[in-house]
Amino acid sequence: MVEGYLKNPFASERYPEKNRPGQRLKWIFSLLKITIGLGLIILLIISGRLNLGVIFIVYRHPAYFIAGILCCIGAFLLPIYRWWILARIQKLPVGGFDALRLTMIGYFFNTFIPGSSGGDIIRAAYTIKSCSEKKPHVLTVAFADRSLGLHALLIISAAAMLMQPALLSHVPGIQRWTGMITGLIIAGIVLPFWFLRKGADSIVIRLCGKIVGGAEAWHNALQLYRQQPGMVCLAYLCSVANVMFSIFLIHFMMLAGGANPGVLESLVVAPLVILVNSLPITPGGLGIAEAASASLYNLVGQAGGANGMILARLIIIMFSLMGLPFFLLNKSSSRTLVKP
To answer: What confidence tens digit (pLDDT) does each residue in 73-90 have?
Structure first.
């Protein structure tokens, strides 16, 4: 799907904006996404589960608010380093500033551009434009980068559930799904490590090659990853740390808003909220994540989930704005990636 989208990621250079095929339909879907997101926010306010007044009382808990900001900084910086590591392993001509520039543009698009297909795709598209001969490798890096993040998200949530298995025991009907959920978690944790075995090359190439990049690119990628296991482990540690910072961003914003969740409760709930927030239903997950946070925190006996998420979103928006100068600079300049 990613590869199909990126066959011509800069189609606007060939077609005028007003004549681009499907442009009207694209705008309709964008407006629909915005409407859904704003509609969910309004429903949460009407139902009393979201109180925008919480924005003006965070000064009562300055330590939690500052801690949340620091966590957001960590959550923004670590994916830049992780992507740079994966790109360097595959010998892409990407320097440290290039990784910063492209990732910040991705953050900006993911948060502010309606209908955007996600920051990862935007970053890949800009990278491909600068080194088109490396397109298959760029796509495999994007896929590997997202996969590491999702795996870390899953394993942290699973570990929290194992540390306090009774946390969700009072959720109606959860017992009947326990076996299936446990099996899925185990499969999700074990499969990536199994795929890294040499004997699994053909399976990985067949599966991933059809999704993105092609068989040859994945064959080369797997060889390069196995040659530098230390760098791959470092990239994965960046993913784990990134997830922890993101979880504690939501946790501290909950505390800043006057709620009182436990750390283990946030370790179970916040990864699910982050996962929902990444779904391409509304721009940047607006409304969807607030509704999920309210519902999931309520399941573990905590109120104020939507308030904590809206505060976290405001911090994310503030940092995402930092990608605007990079985007404007990129538009006004013909600068290409420079080999370090």
So the answer is: 999 999 999 999 999 988
